[in-house]
Design goal:
Structural class: alpha+beta
Mean pLDDT: 86
Radius of gyration: 19 Å
Largest sheet: 3 strands, antiparallel
Number of strands: 12
Order of helices and strands: HEHEEEEEHHEHEEHHEEEH
Helix content: 25-40%
Distance between the termini: 21 Å
Shape: globular
Number of domains: 1
Strand content: 15-25%
Number of helices: 8
Length: 299
């Protein structure tokens, strides 16, 4: 997403997207360089987001040091010459946090581990669903992705539980009660779409980016197709997501755009020669359009 956003924003919106904190973003930029600068699959290996470690830093809170996820800060500004803007900023900053899903396991929210509480005050939320961790999705994909090495790992499906826990925490932190929903955009990313697209039975996705910018009609078309598929296979994901926010859309994405390979060490990694990300920046562009519509307008 961070690799694709600057390209799409400049090309389609005449907007620049760049580091506000190069030192603070160094780890994320290093991961991007590792992935897109690799020459072999072995060099392209990225570490999984963990509960603690290099992606976190100790922060004083209520008289104690607690581990909090590092903020990744980026600046978005108009690059259009002579553009006139009324009652809208010509620039803004976006702060991204990358939480491990385990942060939203029941019982993880405590004084000693408050590292996911910022989700309730976020301007927008991304939730990444891994179909290879869903036994029901894997069963359906077996006929079309049987050779995929990701099929070899045991599924650890807690994704509906994590989403349900997120709903409860947001409701508690915002004093909403379980019957009210927040009005902030929630993007449900159904990852690794290169593996499950055949499950759409010939129905075609549309690229939301065209000569006119970002097409809401195309985004909603794709969301409708993906939501129907997820509702059929993993309905709890749809139910929990739509219980969190009034603004929920479903996005097909693929970070690698191809079937990963198995290395001699046993790791499942992308082949750098085949990297072809699929619509990874679209969820962020949609959320940007909800927050700063003059900078990222919908067509």
């Amino acid at each position: 997403m961070i690799h694709q956003l600057p390209i799409s924003l400049l090309r389609h919106f005449s907007a620049r997207f760049h580091d506000s904190d190069p030192a603070g973003n160094a780890l994320l930029n290093q991961m991007r360089s590792t992935l897109f600068g690799a020459r072999t699959p072995e060099e392209a290996k990225l570490a999984k987001t963990q509960l603690e470690g290099v992606m976190y830093e100790s922060v004083p809170k209520d008289g104690r040091l607690v581990p909090m996820p590092k903020p990744f800060v980026y600046h978005l500004e108009s690059a259009a010459v002579g553009a006139k803007r009324v009652q809208s900023p010509a620039a803004c900053s976006f702060i991204f946090y990358d939480n491990a899903g385990e942060h939203f396991q029941p019982g993880r929210d405590s004084v000693e581990s408050p590292g996911a509480q910022h989700v309730a005050s976020s301007a927008g939320i991304f939730f990444l669903f891994d179909p290879f961790n869903s036994p029901l999705f894997r069963r359906r994909m077996a006929n079309v992705s049987s050779a995929d090495p990701q099929m070899e790992k045991l599924p650890l499906d807690q994704q509906d539980t994590i989403l349900a826990e997120m709903r409860i925490r947001i409701a508690r932190l915002l004093n909403l009660g379980l019957k009210r929903r927040m009005d902030k955009p929630l993007a449900i990313l159904i990852g690794k779409c290169d593996a499950w697209l055949p499950l759409l039975n010939g129905q075609k996705l549309v690229n939301p980016l065209d000569e006119n910018g970002l097409s809401l009609k195309a985004i909603e078309h794709n969301s409708h197709l993906v939501r129907d598929l997820v509702l059929e296979i993993a309905p709890k994901i749809v139910g929990n997501a739509e219980g969190i926010s009034d603004k929920v859309l479903f996005f097909p994405v693929s970070s690698f755009g191809h079937t990963p390979v198995r290395t001699q060490s046993g790791d499942c990694v992308p082949d750098p020669s085949k990297l072809n990300p699929v619509m990874t920046e679209i969820p962020a562009l949609w959320i940007f359009s909800q927050i700063v519509p003059d900078l990222v307008p919908l067509s």
